[in-house]
From TrEMBL:
Organism expressing this protein natively: Roseibium alexandrii (strain DSM 17067 / NCIMB 14079 / DFL-11) (Labrenzia alexandrii)
Domain of life: Bacteria
Lineage, uppermost ranks: Bacteria, Pseudomonadati, Pseudomonadota, Alphaproteobacteria, Hyphomicrobiales
EAL domain location: 1-255
Protein name according to UniProt: PAS domain S-box/diguanylate cyclase (GGDEF) domain protein
Length: 255
């Protein structure tokens, strides 16, 4: 568990970072918000991606939740900083099923919101991860409803990959569904993937939920999705995730 001990130390020494990737409205190409993605600035190993350090941490719920709280705190602080310089946007954070269903999530979220009064709750969106680990859908639904009372928004991440995403779509009061990049990647020359995309986009329409496509790597992907009626997108076609300090410059140079 060397890495988990290391992660605890990293929390104390402020070695984690959030990088930000813009989310784009396809019709106008305007930025509608940013997704916060965690990185670890490791003293010896350099900048680590979540795949390299989150899995072992997630086997230690106390550490995982502490890290999740750090993410919330840091993202809200970033919103405040951006508000101060006139960048009025939203930030999405990734929240694991474990954190969302921990006994005091609503209370913790409200405490964080109170700690950052210059960030409007509606500027925060929570992306729910690992939907297949959400066993008690009634309870999750209630947690989301309660958090939405303070105007925080919710997205279902990696839509289509959890084994019961359709039931979640029906039962969870979410604002956005994010189409997993796996459905987008080959869509330019795969007719079946194209049909699947159209299906997910029309599901969004039926349930009155915004649809955002992930992994949009080229203008051709963006064009195809726009043609299908998908409103929002995120991916390398627009920008890679970038350090918070680069966002202001990138934002002001974007169209
Ligand atoms: O850029 P990318 O390698 O950042 O992210 C890989 C995966 O890590 C994604 O599935 C993403 O949801 C997850 N991830 C990124 N940031 C966070 C975070 O702050 N908390 C959690 N729990 N997962 C994250
Ligand atoms: O939370 P989530 O699973 O959605 O995390 C998004 C992941 O996808 C992150 O690892 C991010 O760096 C990555 N990503 C973002 N845009 C693109 C893209 O256009 N192509 C690919 N292959 N990965 C992307
Ligand atoms: Mn995400
Ligand atoms: Na995703």
């Amino acid at each position: 568990y060397a890495q988990v001990a290391d992660a605890k130390k990293a929390l104390k020494t402020d070695a984690f970072r959030l990088h930000y990737q813009p989310k784009i409205r396809l019709a106008t190409k305007e930025v509608i918000g940013y997704e916060a993605l965690i990185r670890w600035q490791h003293p010896e190993k350099g900048l680590l991606m979540p795949g390299a350090f989150l899995p072992p941490i997630e086997r230690h719920p106390d550490v995982a939740i502490e890290l999740g709280n750090w993410v919330l705190d840091n993202a809200l602080e970033q919103i405040e900083r951006w508000n101060e310089v006139g960048l009025d946007t939203t930030v999405s954070v990734n929240v694991s099923a474990l954190q969302l269903t921990s006994s005091d999530f609503e209370e913790t979220l409200n405490k964080h919101l109170q700690k950052h009064p210059a960030a409007e709750p509606c500027q925060l969106e929570i992306e729910i991860l690992e939907t297949d680990a959400l066993s008690d859908i009634e309870r999750v639904s209630k947690i989301i409803r309660n958090c939405r009372l303070s105007s925080v928004r919710f997205a279902l991440d990696d839509f289509g990959t959890g084994y019961s995403s359709l039931a979640y779509l029906k039962q969870l009061p979410i604002d956005t569904l994010k189409i997993d990049q796996g459905f987008v990647h080959d869509s330019l020359n795969n007719a079946q993937d194209q049909e699947l995309l159209k299906l997910i986009i029309s599901l969004g329409r039926v349930y009155n939920i915004d649809v955002l496509a992930e992994g949009v790597e080229t203008p051709a992907h963006a064009e195809l999705l726009h043609t299908y009626g998908c409103r929002y997108a995120q991916g390398y076609a627009f920008a890679r995730p970038m350090p918070a300090d680069d966002v202001l410059d990138w934002h002001s140079n974007w169209i």
